[in-house]
Amino acid sequence: MLITNIKILANVRESQHKLRGAELGELPVLENAFLKIEDGKISDYGPMDATPDRKGDLDASGRIVLPTWCDSHTHLVFASSRENEFIDKIKGLSYAEIAAKGGGILNSARKLRETSEDELFEKAQNRLEKLIQLGTGAIEIKSGYGLSLEGELKMLRVIKRLKNSSPVPIKATFLGAHALPEEYKNQREAYIRLLIHETLPILAKDGLADYIDVFCEQGFFTPEETLEICEAGKSFGLKAKIHANQLSISGGVQAGMSVGALSVDHLESIGEEEIEILGKENAPMATLLPSAAFFLRMAYPPARQLIQNRAAIALASDYNPGSSPSGNMNLLLSLACIQMKMLPEEAINAATLNGAYAMELENEVGSISRGKRANFILTRQVPSLAYLPYSFGENWIEKVFINGK
Ligand SMILES: N=CN[C@@H](CCC(=O)O)C(=O)O
Ligand SMILES: [Zn+2]
Q: What Gene Ontology terms for biological process does this UniProt record contain (predicted)?
């Protein structure tokens, strides 16, 4: 397939690396370009005057082509929505107060227990199909609503089925340490032992997870526990992706740095020390989830300061029923620009190439590069790239291509 007369072909890269600091603002584009796809992969691209066949199969005049979104942090597998808590929040209860009275993650865990594996799979598959139509072309999905040996394995098996049935690449993360389950209320150590000595060996043997995650937060898991769990994951070959500094300065960034995490995610509550750590060359990806801050009416992560200090930033949806009941990456792009003052180029890089790095999928997706999957978005006729985050809520997508289809 040959697409011709593309007004702007965005994020075109012959070579690449993880984008830090000012590099996030550099989005390579080609104007009046063509894109060629063979066997589901990008085989060529270039300026229109360099193509011998100017007719092509699809005329993209006036329209932009950009890589699909790489959503590196989601909780896509869950049993049901939690709009009753949404009402509680409107009435003034905080996320922590809702969690303390048995809502939140524990509420989702109760519902998951009553839901069959097949039903969970169908619901998640349905959500994933909708996300693909909204431009998501690679995704990470966490467990963490099982909170028992059987429950966590059930979630991870659902994610494995999604991997096998979906056309987009998927990474699975074990988040058994998402909350202390009710039955273990007064037995933290026993629950951590269950995660490390019983659950991890089984899921590793069955190849059910790529990464390990811990909710490192006051009232959830301490930095010491986070380290212990992540080190155990590491011994089974699972790199860490940590829920860090969402509700408080939790020590999650330091834990992530010391365990060599692939990413530390959230970062609504960070200070100078954490920002400095994240600017180091070997620091984990700082994954920002502005739709969770939006939904919970919390302060947004300090994206500008992070960029100034050379952090590598990815943007992800955090799609989950409690703090971000939307996986819409287009809206997220607008939130990143409007609320965190990221420039459109920075936000697009963070939601594509850096998102791919946060899932170790950088050789498959995240940019328009020869040999990568032909996963890209074709927009409707739009005036410019900046129009995409500017026109928040508008559906400017004409078509989403996955593996060239
Ligand atoms: N903060 C922890 N986990 C999710 C929320 C999960 C839930 O509320 O169900 C998050 O990333 O925001
Ligand atoms: Zn999350």
A: L-histidine catabolic process to glutamate and formamide; L-histidine catabolic process to glutamate and formate
Measured in Å, residue 189 CA sits from the centre of ligand 2 at 23
Binding residues for Fe(3+): 73, 75, 243, 318
| Continuous H helices in 166-251 | 188-193, 200-205, 223-235
- Chain-centre distance for alpha carbon 224: 25
Protein residue with its CA nearest to atom 4 in ligand 1: 323
Best CA proximity match to 34, nearest among 9, 14, 10, 13 = 9
- Helix 252-259 × helix 223-235 angle, to 10°: 30
- Give 84-107 pLDDT, tens digit per residue: 999 999 999 988 889 887 789 999
The residue whose CB lies within 8 Å of the most ligand 1 atoms, and thus the one to mutate among 84, 93, 178, 226, is 178
pLDDT, one tens digit per residue, over 109-166 is 999 999 999 999 999 999 999 999 999 999 999 999 999 999 999 999 999 999 999 9
| Domains detected in the chain | 2-67+367-401 (2.30.40.10), 70-357 (3.20.20.140)
Per-residue pLDDT of 297-314, as tens digits, reads 999 999 999 999 999 999
**Average pLDDT score over residue span 377-405:** 98
- Which residues fall in the annotated binding site for N-formimidoyl-L-glutamate? 145, 320, 322
